Amino acid sequence: MMADTLRSFEADTGKILDIVINSLYSNREIFLRELISNASDALDKRRYLAATDQSLQTEETASISLVVDEKAKTLTISDNGIGLSEDDMISSLGTIARSGSKSFLEQVEATQASDKEKGDAFSLIGQFGVGFYSAFMVADKVDVLSLKAGEKTANLWTSDGRTGYEISSATREAAGTDITLYLKKDAKEFLDEPRISHLVRKYSDHLSYQVMWQPALVDEARQLNTGSALWTREKKDISDEDYTEFYRQISASYDEPFLTLHNRSEGAVNYTSLLFVPTARPFDLFNPDRKSRMQLYINRVFISDECEEIVPPWLRFVRGVIDTPDLDLNVSREMLQHNPAVQKIGKAVVRRILSELKKKKDKDREAYDEFWDQFGIVLKEGLYEDADNREKLLELCLFTSARSGALVSLADYVSAMPETQDKIYTLSAETLEQAQNSPHLEGFRARDIDVLLLTDPVDEFWMQSVTEFEGKSFASATRGAHDLDAVSPKDDKKEGNEDDAAKDESFGSLLETFKSALGEAVGDVRLSKTLTESPACLVADENGMDVQMERLMKAHNKEFVGAPRILEINPDHALVKGLKDSSDSTLVNDAAYLLFDQAQILEGRTPSNLPEFAQRLTRLMERGLSV
Prior knowledge:
By secondary structure, the protein is of the alpha+beta class. It has a 9-stranded mixed β-sheet, with helices on one face. Strands 16-15-18-17-20-19 form a 6-stranded mixed β-sheet. A hairpin with a 5-residue loop joins strand 10 and strand 11 (271-277).
């Protein structure tokens, strides 16, 4: 044993500690989590070794104490775990002060030189002991007093984190470790019980060991953590009330969970998950900065509540806990590595959530309809973000039926289709009322062909990447020309093609007049095969853009101008028939514009030239009154 041996840091170590203290951690309160986690590991190790070595057993309750001396401005983290010998101190606490420092520095510098974010490549935890060195973020000096279980002599490790460290002989009554932090002037907040209590509940609440608050020279101590992790208990021992209370605790919500999923997985990756699907929509569900609130633990030590690597953004409403001993983390424990274990856990968790939602949809449709009303719009984000789960998500999707006004699934829609129908018809609109009043539905309703109404902005995006369901392709009611008579003939017409040809010839002159009057405002003018009550409507070309998508594009770019749409006129409408036989060119020209503007208004758009629209409407009313 060498007493009061000064061990100088290597030249690079000062630079390394500067990185550890100032760069690796975004919030210096993390030091407490690291030191409590180390204490918990020491208790685990002693408990494990004591199972086969009785000399390591103790009658003391395994615990961790936080001792505060306000006068000395010190915070001490104590445990009665396995303890450290002199050699352990050199290898565990002095690692980055020895040969490991150069390797550590080279890896950090290589990371900073890359194009990746700094945190992505800090996969060094456990290799260089830098978790312990986070203590220097808040302390000018750190003492480590430790007696290893089974040994008689204790040792004291002391360092200011700059000039080097000393190891000397010391005295400690029982096995374990005391880490004393001499706090910096700007770190006195860590002497306050409310502050420490909050941090323990935040990061270490579910450790299996008691974390006690112990002011110096005071006999009474108070437990800061619950010391019990709900997710580690058997499901049969947990009541619904227990689950609900825990859900409300971690989500800061007051609703009942719609689904509670408690699962323990063992295999290539071991983990326990306790997941909750809410009943009510969180107020910030559509906040652009909102991220996943899934809590990640490693052996019941809190790591992060931002785990998009495990739970994707389109499941951001799911709350809960993932606890695993197998997950690799970066050096600061604040960013997950791109690790196969992460991907496996994430895929399994997503599969489980989707599977349970499917079961709920099949068994309790009324409750699922209410869930969909709250979270369907977010789930549909996954249709264009997650190709791997697209088919499962399509099975979960619900849409408003134009026929019944109720929510139906795609499977419901397909099963109700006549054999002659080979497409799933959809109609996009800004609101449900606007969709239900759309003239594009008239021909479908006349033939009892159902149409799915899409009123969420996200619908326009996923429809670009999803082309079919169960072999049935999607077709927009507002795009292209639809031969609905082929699906369900109207009035049993069997010579429809001849009638269409005759109408084209009869209305040819009117169509040309409309085209000439409207010019580039429209892409074409043609007779409609779907209108039954309205005189006109606008449709997009087969490969064109629906009005809803144009509206979204316009919202993002005011300079955006969509392609001219096609004006369809109803040859069976009395107004159109009258215009066909009219010789008043002024009236026909005004009617062309008014029908075009009327069609735009029905789509929720404003006529491009309101003064001219008003003038034409006035002239038409004057004619009606013979003024």
